[in-house]
Specification:
The complex is a heterodimer. Chain A is of the alpha/beta class. In chain A, 29% of the residues lie in helices and 38% in strands. A seven-stranded mixed sheet of chain B has the order 1-2-3-4-5-6-7, with helices on both faces. The chains are: A alpha/beta, B alpha/beta. The A-B interface holds A 1, 17, 19, 22-25, 27, 29, 31, 33, 44-46, 72, 74-76 and B 19, 38-40, 42, 49, 52-57, 60, 79, 81-83. Chain B: Residues 267-291 are annotated as: Disordered.
């Protein structure tokens, strides 16, 4: 298991918190809590050795979606596509 | 399949395909669901991370209070996708506490029934003894509440209900299953690994369902209702069970009947699963799902 922390510039505050997904095989859970300033991401993942892939996937996501919030990701082996979909779902549910 | 059967199939909303939170909310009256101890309370298991296992913010148990056909209920759902629905210290304590609070409310003049959505392999091995202890607390809490208000167990599938939690299922006022679901003390793979493939072949699905499956469990009277995998059908079955209230005698109290059943089976020459209902003197029931 690995715990990773990232921070990305953001300027669009989330309206409300949201929770999506489950810590099940090939899936992940996302807890999004609105916060001022940057997008702060804490990842706990069951799979070791993918730090660079996580950085790339998250960098790309937060370059397009500059949502100011704290993101807690509890991952159980989700692929980059699933990670991106769950993050999209979290920010959509966090809209006003 | 006729045209009408196809149409009714397409009209169905599968309960099995919902996650635990969606299942709990699907049972409750629109707009009445109120989740207790949810993911943002972050009461996760303290034992998983030190063992290299990623925790879940709600520890895999969803507790939602609300109304079901206007009656107060608390729905407690186990999320089967997280750790195979395994019960740990926190998730077990959440179930036991929710049941005890319903009992407290019922005694204080606010009758609150409970609905248990059971999809679990039993105790979570990473939390061994603590998990076992909380399953005992869950059983005690079921006994406490069922004297006051119905405790309705639902095993919808796809995982089924095994291990210590199957004892809690056996204590429920009413137990509702689907044909897809399973109920057993030891799961098929546990039996196979402990006693060998000649005893139980865990890859033989027809064999497993002929013994553990919902159809057989209802036919032999170890569960009460076989319901279609459909939100509306399950909701009406659960509402009906809540409406029935507390029975004069619970199944688990009928010791004489249960002992006679054990005596009727010779382990050296066990009956075929299809013969079991007759061996236990239960009248043949009509096939097919209710609702």
């Amino acid at each position: 298991m690995r715990t990773l922390s990232y921070e990305f510039p953001a300027d669009r505050p989330a309206a409300r918190r949201s929770h999506v997904g489950v810590v099940g095989s090939g899936d992940l859970e996302v807890l999004m809590t609105p916060a001022n300033g940057n997008a702060r991401v804490r990842v706990r993942t069951s799979v070791d050795g993918f730090d660079t892939v996580w950085r790339t996937v998250l960098e790309r996501f937060f370059a397009r979606h500059r949502v100011a919030a704290s993101f807690e990701l509890n991952d159980f082996g989700a692929t980059p596509g699933v990670v991106t979909l769950r993050l999209r779902q979290a920010i959509e549910e966090g809209r006003a | 399949m006729t045209v009408t059967e196809w149409e009714s199939l397409l009209d169905r909303t599968s309960f099995i395909e919902l996650d635990a939170r969606e299942r709990a909310k699907a049972l409750l009256d629109e707009g009445t669901a109120d989740e207790l101890c949810g993911p943002f309370d972050r009461i996760e298991s303290p034992w998983l991370e030190p063992q290299g296992v990623v925790p879940q913010a709600d520890d895999g148990v969803v507790v939602v209070k609300g109304l079901l056909d206007g009656r107060r209920v608390v729905v407690i759902g186990i999320e089967q996708a997280f750790q195979g629905g395994g019960i740990g210290e926190v998730s077990g304590a959440k179930i036991a506490a929710a049941l005890s609070l319903a009992a407290r409310d019922s005694r204080a003049g606010t009758p609150t029934a409970a609905v248990l959505l059971l999809e679990t392999g039993g105790v979570r091995l990473q939390e061994a003894n603590l998990g076992l202890a909380t399953v005992a607390e869950v059983c005690a809490a079921v006994l406490e509440l069922r004297a006051l208000q119905p405790v309705v167990g639902v095993i919808a599938g796809a995982l089924g209900c095994f291990g210590g939690v199957s004892i809690a299922a056996g204590l429920c006022t009413t137990l509702i299953m689907t044909a897809e679901s399973r109920l057993g003390l030891d799961g098929p793979e546990v039996i196979e690994s402990e006693a060998g493939i000649a005893e139980f072949d865990a890859s033989d699905h027809p064999l497993i369902w002929s013994i553990d499956g919902g159809t057989q469990r209802v036919r032999t009277g170890l569960a009460d209702a076989l319901v279609l995998d459909d939100v509306t059908a399950l909701r009406s079955a659960v509402a009906g069970a809540v409406r029935q209230g507390v029975p004069a005698e619970h199944r688990s109290r009928r010791i004489g009947e249960l002992r006679a059943r054990l005596e009727a089976v010779d382990p050296a020459h066990p009956p075929a699963p299809s013969e079991l209902a007759a061996v236990w003197g239960r009248p043949a029931q009509s096939e097919g799902d209710q609702g």
